[in-house]
């Protein structure tokens, strides 16, 4: 189980006031790396690299991966770390200006990869990741590999992952003679049975606010055999499968959720569960720290973790990449940049990041190593060890205008939460979503 300090590192992209510049070198890794002898565009030997990335557990882990990379290669890696919004603004300004003053960028694939790749800002890394069998690209979780690819090209290496799971009150389930639900049908029945608002306990808490809920709806869609878009990229919010998924999500909160659910994002919904006021909570596994901090949670000793329940299409849940590291297409040190990326994401360093910095890495071999994974709750580790059979590499509509799409997609779910006509609203939303998709062609 996490300590409260180390577990907090799982929280994604904590904001900081400004840029944090770190001179890095790193620890342990592949021998024989050639970064130190790589030549820049002007023919000079590379002695330093610069990375711009989010302030995240992965970036924090690099602070302690200090001396060995510099000792091994002579290359100093300077990191500029920002909060997420500031990061995207900074990257867009620099890349639009074709700046070569940084070499590696850490970014969120679902927010900017389409825009960045369309503009020619990201280096195609397909040959890099497949050229070294000992580095083993296939060791990365399939959903994570899928997430960093677009039109058959690889635009980065996934360095953090996140999944949707079920949190539940072990004491309440035990008292009712229940086990963690394995199907969505069982989930709905258990939520109904444990719903006891008269005594201050609701059956479930989840995001109900229009935009934040969209990512959590995704696993419901996948498990019903649906998605935001079909295989041809057309809007598919009004299919029978999608409507059933939306209806279930809405019914759970409409019938068994706390009052004001449509105003709740993850902060508000997780607080309900942390206070012991909900039997179930469904959201990202990165929030486990919230419920394991004795200063903030009353369910530290009674929280359980379960895989997302199976629907008609099986248990299909998002397994996304909150942070990817890619190469600036305008860098004059691309070979050296790849050497560092390959080194810092190799199997040895991935295990170190998982075990010592509590970073949820993308390499499956790290999670399969009991020692490396020991700092994570056993219930979460168990889920991740079989993630290749269940994970889907996106948790939102796949297009550049993702913010506008989420606003559209969330509408029918809010309608369901409020007890309205889901079928009619899904049809209307699907038309609007299709118009948005058409606008990008």
Automatic annotation (TrEMBL):
Signal peptide coordinates: 1-25
Cross-referenced InterPro entries: Bact_solute-bd_prot1, SBP
Pfam families, sorted: SBP_bac_1
The entry's keywords: Signal
UniProt keyword annotation of Transport present: no
The organism's place on the tree of life at top rank: Bacteria
Keyword Signal appears in the UniProt entry: yes
Protein name per Swiss-Prot or TrEMBL: Sugar ABC transporter substrate-binding protein
Species this chain originates from: Microbacterium capsulatum
């Amino acid at each position: 189980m996490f300590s409260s300090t180390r577990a907090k590192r799982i929280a994604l992209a904590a904001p900081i006031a400004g840029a944090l510049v770190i001179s890095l070198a790193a620890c342990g890794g592949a021998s024989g790396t050639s970064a130190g002898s790589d030549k820049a565009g002007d023919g000079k030997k590379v002695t330093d690299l610069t990375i711009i990335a989010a302030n995240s557990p992965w970036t924090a882990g690099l602070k302690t991966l200090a001396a060995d990379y510099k000792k091994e290669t002579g290359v100093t890696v300077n990191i500029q770390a920002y909060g997420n919004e500031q990061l995207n603004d900074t990257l867009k300004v620099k890349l639009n200006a074709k700046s070569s003053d940084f070499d590696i960028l850490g970014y969120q694939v679902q927010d900017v990869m389409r825009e960045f790749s369309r503009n020619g800002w990201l280096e195609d890394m397909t040959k890099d990741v497949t050229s070294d069998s000992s580095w083993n690209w296939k060791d990365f979780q399939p959903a994570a590999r899928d997430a960093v690819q677009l039109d058959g090209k690889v635009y980065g290496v996934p360095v953090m992952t996140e999944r949707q799971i079920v949190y539940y009150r072990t004491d309440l389930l035990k008292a009712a003679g229940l086990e963690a639900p394995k199907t969505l049908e069982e989930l709905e029945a258990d939520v109904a049975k444990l719903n006891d608002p008269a005594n201050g306990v609701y059956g479930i808490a989840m995001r109900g606010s229009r935009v934040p809920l969209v990512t959590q709806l995704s696993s419901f869609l996948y498990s019903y055999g649906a998605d935001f878009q079909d295989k041809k990229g057309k809007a598919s919010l009004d299919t029978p499968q999608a409507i059933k998924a939306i209806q279930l999500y809405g019914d759970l909160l409409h019938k068994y959720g706390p009052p004001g659910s449509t105003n709740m994002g993850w902060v508000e919904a997780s607080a309900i569960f942390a206070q012991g006021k909900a039997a179930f909570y469904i959201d990202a596994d990165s929030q486990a720290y919230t419920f394991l901090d004795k200063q903030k949670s009353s369910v530290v000793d009674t929280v359980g973790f379960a895989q997302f329940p199976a629907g008609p299409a099986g248990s299909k849940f998002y397994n996304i990449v909150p942070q990817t590291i890619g190469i600036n297409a305008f860098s004059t040190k691309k070979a050296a940049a790849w050497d560092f990326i390959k080194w810092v994401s190799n199997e040895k360093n991935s295990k170190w990041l998982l075990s010592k910095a509590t970073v949820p890495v993308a390499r499956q071999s790290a999670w399969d190593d009991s020692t490396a994974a020991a700092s994570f709750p056993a219930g979460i580790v168990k889920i991740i060890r079989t993630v290749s059979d269940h994970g889907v590499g996106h948790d939102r509509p796949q297009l550049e205008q993702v913010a506008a799409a989420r606003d559209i997609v969330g509408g029918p779910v809010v309608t369901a939460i409020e007890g309205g006509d889901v079928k009619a609203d899904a049809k209307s939303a699907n038309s609007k979503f299709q118009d948005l998709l058409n606008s990008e062609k």
